[in-house]
Amino acid sequence: MTDTPRVTVWNEYRHEQNERRPAEVYPAGIHGALADALREGGVAQVGTATLDEPHNGLPDEVLEATDVLLWWGHIAHDEVADEVVERVHRRVLGGMGLVVLHSGHFSRVFKSLMGTTCDLKWRHGDRERLWVVAPGHPIAEGLGEYIDLGEEEMYGEHFDVPPPDELVFVSWFGGGEVFRSGLCYRRGRGRIFYFRPGHEENPSYYDPDVRRVINNAVRWAAPSPGPEPTRGNTEPLE
Ligand code: ZN
């Protein structure tokens, strides 16, 4: 499989180093579990990057060699350097795919691409059922009608994001809330997918269906070749 996208998994990587439960659930870090899921799914080139590395793990040369970037962050969104936020934003407009996971809804990268607060309501220790509401969509390929996750954090509406181009999942929670949990956007040439599960204390990134969705999303978000438009003041065509 040489034509799979080159993927970089970005993770804040603080909970797993500083708290007992996330360290037990994700001993190799959330990025380690996600990278394994992609390698198992046949993605040939998978790298990882974390917040505390130089340039937050995302210097120019890494982003330039990334077709699809995964983003997991939670407690240190403000520590991501302005230049990194700007570079990721620019790369997405230029065609790089972006898959934003769980609490990445509040990342500066996602908020800057959405232009809204991206706020929501939440509660720990619920259970989640993600219904597939776009059964023909490539991101839902290979799934059943829904995915059940026995323990997850609840995210509830209203989720303050722009209406998505395509809605792939709607979640129901034990407490009665619902949430748009799989959303597709285009910004410039780039494709963005937001996928809700993945609280740091719950083992959702080992769930086979969740791993399938992430693999499907990476392939969906990969850049498409095509013409480079000319912009600015131009002469008439011959
Ligand atoms: Zn969480």
User: Which sequence of SSEs, written as H and E, runs from N to C?
Assistant: EHHHEHEHEHEEEEEH
Beta strand %: 25-35%
The strands making up the biggest β-sheet line up spatially as 2-1-3-4-9-8-7-5-6
Shape: globular
Q: Could you tell me how far the N terminus lies from the C terminus, measured between alpha carbons in angstroms? A: 43 Å
Kindly identify the CATH topology of one domain. Answer: Rossmann fold
Assigned CATH superfamily of one domain: Class I glutamine amidotransferase (GATase) domain
- Average pLDDT number: 97
Can you offer a commentary on this structure?
- The mean pLDDT is 97.
- The protein is an alpha/beta fold.
- It is built from 7 helices and 9 strands, in the order βαααβαβαβαβββββα.
- The protein has a domain at 7-115 and 184-221: Rossmann fold.
- It is globular, with a radius of gyration of 18 Å.
- Helix 5 (82-93) links the parallel strand 3 and strand 4.
- Strands 2-1-3-4-9-8-7-5-6 form a 9-stranded mixed β-sheet.
- The longest helix is centred in the last third of the chain and has 14 residues, at 208-221.
- The chain binds zinc ion.
- Residues 102-103, 153, 199 line the site of zinc ion.
